[in-house]
Specification:
By secondary structure, the protein is mainly alpha-helical. The protein has helices at 14-33, 45-50, 56-59, 67-79, 82-87, 89-117, 130-135, 137-143, 162-172, 178-193, 199-202, 207-216, 218-221, 228-232, 238-265, 305-313, 318-327, 332-341, and strands spanning 43-44, 124-125, 148-152, 156-159. The strands form 2 sheets. It has a two-stranded antiparallel ribbon with strand order 1-2. The two termini are 20 Å apart.
Amino acid sequence: MFTSTGSRGLYKAPLSKGLLLVPGALACLLTLAFPRHQGLFSYDMQAVRHNFQFWRLFCGRLVCLDLRDTFCSSLLIYNFRVFERRYGSRKFASFLLGAWLLSALLDVLLAEVLHHLLHLNVDVLPSGPLAPVFALFVPFFHSIPRVQVTQILGQLSITNKSLVYIVGLQLLTSSPFMWIVALSGLTSGELYLRDVLGVQRVLRVPGFAARACSRALEPLFSGAEPNREAAVGMGATLDIQRQQRMDLLDQQILLSQFAQMRRGRQQQVGLINWNRFFPHLRHRGQNPAQPRGSVVPAAPNPVSEEQVARLMEMGFSRLDALEALRVSNNDINMATNFLLQH
């Protein structure tokens, strides 16, 4: 499920960690310890329309009152933590804030349209920060490349994004009116991502608020840098440990090659001398008629421009995308993980 976003836990994702811990803990307390107070956090649209209880647009969208919704939304937030690492906590918080505010307006508009046109009374919507979770599917769809993992029955393709969409579908079908929240969340995410009517300049976290939250909350929710050696030993079987060690070795090799290519890029112009990185290939292409010490440089594998374009759409430069694809032997999934993590 997390092949497209890496496996470094919540390192450099304090906001995602806070969204996992605080709403989840409040949902468990309201469900198990204080069930009588759940009405304060109910997303009651009828009370908003008729009794003008506009405070429910705030309180009703803070905590999930269904533990299944809490679990599914937590899985999705954990998966979407990669956007906080890429954009930074302030920009990521601005996206969530903009989607949260825009979706509140869209919820009211959709409820009124359904009431007047279809005579469908939308009394209570699912509670919790579900609209921003659905809004995160927009950058996930646009920026995370789709890489095929396997096929079922020779026809059904399984990609690195399939399980994320399955969890989203499970969340969508958990309530009769969840589709309204999903539609408003996806629409608000698209509007904010495309900066329609300049919403990114209006609906963003102020600098002073970002600095204050960074000083007060980041020490509480900052994740420790993962211990690679300890992570390798967490496998339950020898096969899992062996596979983890192989993955770690591949990652270290990629990091070393990528760093050397960055240094060599400032010194060389033209093709990269791959014999410098792979000494065991030094005599493979040598012509017997040539002197013993001469070497024929190995031609690099061609890089697909389509894969380069997909990595550039994620925000990486063309040179970084080319180098990552070359050192990963044109494996876009490995190149994406490498660029996101390093």
